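Exercise 7. Predict the structure of Conserved conjugative plasmid protein from Sulfolobus acidocaldarius.
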Amino acid sequence: MELSEVEQRILKALLKKDKMTARELVDASHSSTSVLNPSLEHLIKLGLVNEEREHSFPRRRFVILTESGKEVAQLLVEIERIVEMKKASKSLSSS
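Solution. The predicted structure, encoded as tokens:
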């Protein structure tokens, strides 16, 4: 399974906030609607996120992490943390 940078940012944003609208995800992922929609479709197909629609006006579409999506998002955060620690360690040793 390969995830684009935008898809990774979507997963990490959803880890911080249980459910988000498409507009919130555009902002959180620093992307556009034209990039977000195919990314969401891919994440849905992979079983990492689900969509939920409100039944009353304004009938917003929410995106929610699945359990698998939470696991993947947590791993992404952990990988980032390790990479940052390695960078900090290298910069200290080269000083």
